[in-house]
């Protein structure tokens, strides 16, 4: 399924003459990896940021540390800032960002394991969505990759 999504995403980006960037926390580069598994991806994949730590989010993407302190790394505010930061620190025209709790530990009552915030930025519009996935760490991360790709493809029209 992921390979098909990436192929469709590649076609949509190529049709626009656009490139994408990723800003990944809980997936640790899996979205970028899925994209670059396709030969010729350098035509539409510009770069990926693996910003696993809060410090990396601040240093690499320009996410204000005060936002992380106020809302937590796994939040709408941070996902939006990550998506915007990926564009600001790349030559891409669209981006996807993910920040979540993949597990097995690290969850809380407010943000249980499987909680993932997504941010997408396309055509100057940035929006976010939160989902909660079931399964072990690998399942949460794989579902996150697929939803991130589907979301970007949907926003590209």
Explained architecture:
- With 157 residues, the chain is an alpha/beta fold.
- The chain has helices at residues 2-16, 30-36, 54-61, 65-71, 76-88, 137-156; strands at 20-24, 45-50, 94-100, 115-122, 125-132.
- It has six helices and five strands, in the order H-E-H-E-H-H-H-E-E-E-H.
- Strands 2-1-3-4-5 form a five-stranded mixed β-sheet, with helices on both faces.
- Helix 1 runs parallel beside helix 6.
Strand fraction: 15-25%
Shape: globular
CATH C-level class: Alpha Beta
The CATH architecture would be: Alpha-Beta Complex
Tell me the CATH superfamily. Answer: CinA-like
Number of domains as seen in the coordinates: 1
Question: Which structural class best describes the helix and strand composition?
Answer: alpha/beta
Mean pLDDT: 97
Largest sheet: 5 strands, mixed
Distance, first to last CA: 19 Å
Strand order of the largest sheet: 2-1-3-4-5
Helix fraction, binned, reads: 40-55%
Radius of gyration based on Cα positions: 14 Å
Brief summary of the model shown:
This protein is an alpha/beta fold and 157 residues long.
Spell out the key features of this protein.
157 residues; alpha/beta; Maf protein; 5-stranded mixed sheet; 6 helices; 45% helix; globular
């Amino acid at each position: 399924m992921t390979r098909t999504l990436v192929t469709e995403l590649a076609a949509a980006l190529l049709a626009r003459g656009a490139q994408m960037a990723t800003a990944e926390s809980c997936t640790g580069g899996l979205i970028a990896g899925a994209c670059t598994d396709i030969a010729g991806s350098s035509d539409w994949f510009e770069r990926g940021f693996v910003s696993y730590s809060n410090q990396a989010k601040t240093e690499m993407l320009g996410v204000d540390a005060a936002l992380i302190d106020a809302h937590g790394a796994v939040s709408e505010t941070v996902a939006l800032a990550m998506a915007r930061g990926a564009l600001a620190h790349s030559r891409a025209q669209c981006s996807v960002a993910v920040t979540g709790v993949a597990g097995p530990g690290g969850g809380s009552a407010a943000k249980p394991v499987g909680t993932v915030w997504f941010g997408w930025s396309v055509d100057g519009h940035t929006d976010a969505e939160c989902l909660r996935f079931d399964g072990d760490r690998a399942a949460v991360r794989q579902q996150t990759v697929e939803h991130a790709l589907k979301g970007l493809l949907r926003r590209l029209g």
